[in-house]
Amino acid sequence: MTKSFEEFEVHKKGVVLTKQVFRILNQSSIEKEFGFKDQMKRAVISITNNIAEGSEYNNNKQFVRFLKIAKGSCAEVRNMLILARELEFCTQAEIQESLQLSVEISQNISNFIKYLDSKTENKKLEGLKR
After folding, report:
1. How many CB atoms lie within 10 A of CB 11?
2. What is the C-alpha separation between 27 and 37, in angstroms, rounded?
3. What are the Cα distances from residue 31, in Å, to 2, 26, 58, 111?
4. Alpha helix positions (H), 6-91
């Protein structure tokens, strides 16, 4: 990979989501729910951490593995936002933008995985031609 993780649009969106989630956690009654708050923080931070870590391997197969973990963390954040709403820690209006962004990030990660998988397949095919 020639790009650094900071240049990936999906990483930039993950940073935005992290800031949004931290804002939600600081403004709502979740603040008193330390375990819930801590888990949500770890999950949202995990998205960008796994994108960053995976990109440093310079190996598409390894990068895809870490992107799948990031995608799972994205789903965890989305679930926790839904739970926060259902437990009345916050309103739908307070989390709507973050929910939408988490879906977008998840889709972006899926597309990135497909792209990297296609590059890996092309390399395998090139190896067979020789």
Report:
1. 20
2. 12
3. 41, 6, 39, 35
4. 9-27, 34-55, 60-86
Q: What is the pLDDT along the chain (130 residues), one digit of tens a residue?
A: 468 999 999 999 999 999 999 999 998 688 788 999 999 999 999 999 999 999 999 899 999 999 999 999 999 999 999 999 999 999 999 999 999 999 999 999 999 999 999 987 656 545 444 4
- Considering the four listed CATH numbers 1.10.3720.10, 3.40.50.2300, 1.10.1040.10, 1.20.1440.60, the one that applies to the domain covering 5-129 is 1.20.1440.60
Kindly report the pTM of this predicted structure: 0.89
